[in-house]
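Putative ABC transport system permease protein
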Amino acid sequence: MSAGALTLLARLRRMALAAVWAYKARSLFVILGVGFGVASLTLIVTAVDGAERKAVELVEWFGPDAALVFGGNFKKRAVGARFNTITQDDVRTISQSLPGVSMVVPMRSKAEVPVRHKDSNMPGTLVIGATENYAQAWNWPLVEGRDISAEDVRLGARVALLGDKPARELFGDQSPVGRTFQVGKFQVQAIGLLKYRGASGGGGEVDDRIIIPITTLTNRFNMDRKYYRAMRIKFLEPERMSTHVENLRSFMRQNHNLGPTDDDDFSIITADEILKFLSAFKGGLVAFLGVTAAASMTVGGFVLANLFSISVSERSREIGLKKALGATQNAILAQFLLEAAMLTAVGGLVGLGLGLGLGQLLTRLGMLQILFSWKVFFLSLGSALVIGFVFGIKPARAAAQLDPIAALRGDA
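Structure:
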């Protein structure tokens, strides 16, 4: 680029800045109009990126080689439908007879159980009763200590694995392993600490849990011994999960004497089911916010076009004087487009900040997980500049094509 072109560009930039600053109200309306649209676009991109990262995390900790079976049919919530449908016979026969099974861990649970250690207490946490190798079954590493053993289950031992949240609430930064604390009305000893996962599910944090032997839970809370609330099943060949799940469903239906037209009285959840749910959620989110973003950005564009059209009339004498002094049509066109680009770029940055701020609020409320990336920055700024050029070109051309004599007379 020649020295003359650079000088002209610098002059146009100064004049564009002066015009933007001179018409503050117009500039503010354009910035806000574009900003709201870019904020919606920012939310879309960051929320989708966050959902994809969350999907990867959920699949990793759930395990691609496992299925979680709940009693009751979540998809067919008929009035009076039973949720206690998984029996000891189901667990035994699946362990012994279902092809490809490597591990079956049945579970019962008790919600909102108060726990306490000295002066530290939690009003209510989830207590899960499970058989041996709970951490192994859930691919959940232990930070320290050991897993529940078959001997613990046989004896109904008063031992527990702690999730990260109750460990911090009860013991702070100290190790909980070897310490005793109260669960409901009885004392247990912590034998292991589960690694922090930071995910949420089922209406609460997955780290907010205490796991004790299933026999201990059943005896201490006088629970029904015949049924289990859920069972975790791991398979040997994860690449054949679709076949494993179909075999499991057929096996359960046969075990429960269900006819061809009867609905399942159980629910099977796998990593694929989680991905399908997140994909549907992501699609709905993109559709909703996409319409909002498109509408907001279009409105911002029309605000820019209308205000610039008015500005051409208001500044006709200025344009006529510049043309009389030798300004070319291209120079006038470039100045107006530069003004539009400056305003929409600022609007894009404002919208980016607004979108990220709103995203952080939604993240703290647990509604969305927002993930910032440079892709968001460049997409937001690029879309704002596109608005400036698309909607600013018509008034810019009108300004460039004004007759200088008519403009100086005020007839334009």
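The radius of gyration is 32 Å.
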